[in-house]
Structures are given as C-alpha cells and as structure tokens.
Design a protein that fits this description.
It comes from Nitzschia inconspicua. Pfam families: TPR_8. This protein is mainly alpha-helical. The protein contains seven helices and two strands.
C-alpha cells in the first residue's frame, strides 16, 4: 500500500524521535554509572545535557497530515541502579539513582495522530522526570558528603538545588500538602524516593513544616501501595517476586516512624 508524503514525513519524524529517546536514555544510564563511581560533577553534566535534549523534543510541534500514521509501540522501564555504589550519603536518604530501559515492539499503522503524539510526549516526559531526579540526587549527595558545616553557604546551595529539582520531579508546589496527579506508570519506588529525599532536603534546610508534609505524603504512599499490593496478589494468586525489594528503602521507615508512633499514640510527650 502506497503512503502519502505526509505519512513518510511523519514516519521519519517518529524514527528521529525514538532514536533521540534511545540516546537520551543511554546518557541517563551513563550519568548513573558516573554517580556510582563518585564522579558527581561529570554525572551532573551528563544529566543536564540529556535533560536539555529531552526538553528540546518535548517542545517540538508535530505538524503533519492526519491521514494514516504510525503508532509508537514502545515502553519505558524505570529501575533503581543495581550497581553497588561507593556513595554512602546518609541512612535517611534514598541514595540509588534510577536507570532507564527503553524497549520497542515495532510499529503499526493507525489513523489517530493524537494517540501517537501523546505516546511520544509521555515517553520523553518519563525519561525527563528520571533525569531530574538523578540530578537532584547528585546535588543532594554532594551536599551530604561534604565535610563543611551544615550552615555553610555552598552546602545549603547544593541542598536548595536538590530541593528544587525534587520538586520538579514530583510537581508539588512548596508548602502545599495536596498530592498532585502522578503518571501512574511511574514506579511506586520512584515516587517514594522523591518524597523521602525532598522531605530530607526541607529538614536539612530548617523547613520542618514542609519536611513533615513530605513525610506524611510518603507514609500515605507506602500504605496505599501496601494495600494495593496485598489485594492484587491475594485476588490473583500470582507470585509477588516481581516486586522490587530494596534494603535501601529502610530510610522510608526511618523518616516516617515518628508519624506512625504519633498515630498509634506511642510518640513521646513533648
């Protein structure tokens, strides 16, 4: 079947975009490797370049004919780094960066341009969110591994930068306790890591109210996930081995324990 010039132009655009997405994902994973080696300055630069490239594609309009188009059959997996890191930031900080695995299942012909455009933008958005978190974590690591005093200007600058980037990754306005809508395909662990580390940044910068607000959201997220996890596997009878178990998530309990004790009435008197 012959294709129109508009269709060929669109297919070319999809191939270019998917190639860029693959390259950006690889850059993210390169930055993760540098982070795990303690080469923070280099990691930040790689994450920045990849985020800039992703932003460029996200801002591009897709003005093509609405006849027959190619549906993008791809998926993005977000996984915590399995490589053992030399970085021991702090027991209350989730210190593993996230890798991106891009898989492709080929292309098929469809007639809905809107679907394809949204798919592309969603994939770029997911990868961008991971890049932002990894940049935040790297700045967080620089601050926490510094031998400088907690009140030093440079340390607070790194913490402030990390806080800003975590906010972007999670999209919660500062001071607002209502949870924003999050892409449900994002890994639950990723969401909890963002909230945990954002709460730690607020606390380290002396903003206790916002820190507690983040930890309250974190505890809510933990409880919702546990309920969903229990119901899903109780009803399906499937194995739950596919759920990621990570010892580094102990920081979530460390940071929310005071809220659990408060709710149970076991918190120490003020």
């Amino acid at each position: 079947m012959a294709t129109s010039p508009g269709t060929n132009e669109y297919i070319t655009g999809v191939v270019t975009a998917t190639g860029a997405l693959q390259s950006i994902s690889e850059q993210n994973n390169e930055g993760v490797t540098l982070y795990n080696q303690g080469r923070f300055a280099e990691a930040v630069q790689v994450f920045k370049e990849a985020a800039s490239a992703s932003k460029t594609f996200l801002s591009r309009p897709m003005d093509v004919e609405r006849n027959t188009f190619v549906e993008l059959c791809m998926s993005v997996q977000i996984l915590p780094s399995k490589t053992k890191s030399t970085n021991h930031i702090n027991r209350t900080v989730y210190s593993k960066p996230f890798e991106v695995v891009l898989t492709s299942r080929g292309r098929q012909m469809v007639k809905d341009f809107t679907v394809t455009s949204c798919q592309l933008r969603l994939l770029f958005s997911r990868v961008s969110t991971v890049l932002i978190f990894n940049m935040a974590l790297t700045h967080h690591a620089i601050a926490m591994m510094s031998s400088e005093d907690n009140d030093s200007i440079s340390k607070r600058e790194f913490l402030s930068k990390a806080r800003h980037l975590y906010n972007l990754a999670y999209s919660i306005p500062q001071g607002q306790q209502e949870q924003e809508v999050i892409d449900e395909a994002m890994l639950p662990l990723f969401v909890k890591a963002v909230l945990n580390n954002l709460g730690h940044c607020f606390s380290s910068l002396g903003d206790i109210n916002n820190s507690v607000a983040c930890y309250e959201l974190l505890l809510r997220s933990i409880m919702l996930f546990q309920q969903d996890h229990h119901i899903r596997y109780r009803n399906s009878g499937e194995s739950n081995e596919s759920f990621h178990k990570d010892h580094s998530t102990a920081c979530f309990l460390d940071n929310t324990l005071f809220l659990i004790l408060k709710e149970s009435g076991l918190a120490p008197a003020a």
